[in-house]
Amino acid sequence: MADTARRGALAGRRPSSALLGVVPFFVYVTVFLLVPTLVVVVGAFIATGPGGQGGLSLANVRALAEPAVTSALWHSLILSAVTAVAGAVIGAFLAYAVSTARPDGVLRRFTTSLCGVLAQFGGVALAFAFLATFGATGYLTKLLASTGLDDTGGLWLYEWNKGLMLVYLYFQIPLMLIVFLPAVEGLRPQWREAAETLGGSTWLYWRKVAAPILFPSFVGALLLLFTNAFSAYATAAALVSQGSPLLPLAIGGTLNSEVILGQENVGKAMALLMVVVVAAVMTLYAAIDRRASRWLAR
After folding, report:
1. pLDDT tens per residue across span 121-143
2. Are 89 and 270 in contact (CB under 8 A)?
């Protein structure tokens, strides 16, 4: 009996073989997340001297107050907020429509699978698709121009507050459906039946029962969409080639510009600003998501 207990205690001290399975994940997170974040944080507070890197300084942080940076930040916030709100509202209605379909039906499975693909369809491929359709030489642009319905030549597509918003909605709406659909499915039929039994109308049920329950999940999904748009880079870089109207493009300009040299650490300071904004939003999202999970689990 004592030998068995001793062997069990020794076995408990041995590292579990299950931990070996997560080693690649920790290596991946360290190389592609922790190390780049550390480089950004350190570089944001190091001045760039005439001969290269200088000492510690707040010059890069003070550069964030320049009009070009504040304008790019403001444009990014507007773009992210507008596409997040529009995507959340449209996606919420679509999620409710999908939830009314048969759980094992073809329509529901097709819609959720399609949204899973479209939510990840971004970057240069998405920009090319819109350029081929709505660009200056796009098929639809030429078709509308030949009928006299469009005289803009597709130039609206290259503006951050017009074309880029439409492109972002292409992946924001499917993402909202995927994120918000479980919350809608969490509404129990018994709650609606109870409201109807007590004489409540459909409007009263949604206003007094369903809406308060879904509101935390809706806000959480809205914050997730905001972060998704705020951190997007490849799609905007492929569409907007003149200037840097958005913060991610401004960061890219400081790192690869052949005109403005020695601004790499300013770009790291802007990246640090993005990290702070995204971290604050995701912290709020995690708190709201925990609250919504407790509600729907009851």
Report:
1. 888 889 999 998 888 888 888 88
2. no
